[in-house]
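retry 2 of 3: previous attempt timed out while embedding D-serine. Reduced batch size to 1 and resubmitted. Inputs unchanged:
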Amino acid sequence: MTLPLPHPALSAADPELAALIGDEERLQADTLRLIPSENYVSRAVLEASGTVLQNKYSEGYPGRRYYEGQQNIDKVELLAIARAKELFGVEHANVQPYSGSPANLAVYLAFAEPGDTVMGMALPMGGHLTHGWGVSATGKWFRGVQYGVRQDTGRIDFDEVRELALKERPKLIFCGGTALPRTIDFAAFGEIAQESGAILVADVAHIAGLIAGGAHPSPVPYADVISTTTHKTLRGPRGAMLMSREEHAKAIDKAVFPGLQGGPHNQTTAAIAVALHEAAQAPFRTYAESVVANAKALADELLARGFELVSGGTDNHLILMDLTPKNVPGKVAAKALDRAGIVVNYNTVPYDPRKPFDPSGVRIGTPSLTSRGLGTQHMAAVAEWIDRGVTAAGSGDEDVLGEIRSEVAELMAGYPAPGLSA
Ligand code: DSN
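retry 2 succeeded.
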């Protein structure tokens, strides 16, 4: 199949928009996509997302809807729920949250009252906005207290977390985040939540696919609630799920609908069901293991080239580089790498002296390149491109960035992307 993919009806009805989608298909095919929260979904997931399920309203839950005509929709949602329960070994799953932030907001609605104390990792330390950070509704409507990582190790200090939890007695404790290169110790968080009487919420959005594939420990049975998006390492459509023990099922369902949302996006529910089916197959285990193996190999190659990595490396899919020793700000590096066909995001690093919109770090990860079939043998080349790209960013050498872009496109042409190939 050659790009752009055929979208005959769209091309006829709206050629301008069709051309933009074609441009994006080519961009995703030609570049080395290293943003750790992105991936490539399969053609099957893409097809399920673009169906007549789009046309249906179904507020409520299977068997308890406010609209008729749910003969097929109920079966789709029940299939997605059953697959989520089976894959993650949970008693309850809600597949309706529109995305990660609404999913987390539903958890607040289910278990806390406005003004209650909640606890999560600080955003600049690697947490998420919705874990009680000040600029988010969760930090404005609740009293967020935040833990971080140690400056000397880049790792969570569980003595600090315990002390804070026992002092503040939060209603909710969130673990997980968006820039955490190390294994999350769910058992340690579970103990602290029990001691302090908090509900433990494991936000596994980044690592859900690794958990499903056996490449990261599961938060079951330590977490009361598991929140996840479906489009990161899990390789599904843009959506989310909340999972829990049966005792919390009613509270969670009520919070999602009617508490927070209206009709579920049934086309997304269907695509989540497909992704869960794919994640339950043996090749997905290999995929999850390869994501981690690639990240570890890439971290080693970067360390060998003098890069400073937060926590000294990685246990998962994600690497957080502190570019301070390279004398190149994260944003300058990210924009230069983009011109070189390497797509990353600039990111704060723990204890960053720079501002969030102009931070010291760059965050990278291996979910997308692994989906295209790149292996540990390619990571030296990837690290070399990053090294040359960051150096060129510092010196302003656009010719080098152009050379890297051609080399990247040449390699990626040999590794067609799922969803963009037949
Ligand atoms: N935006 C996601 C990420 O990139 O990690 C988190 O919500």
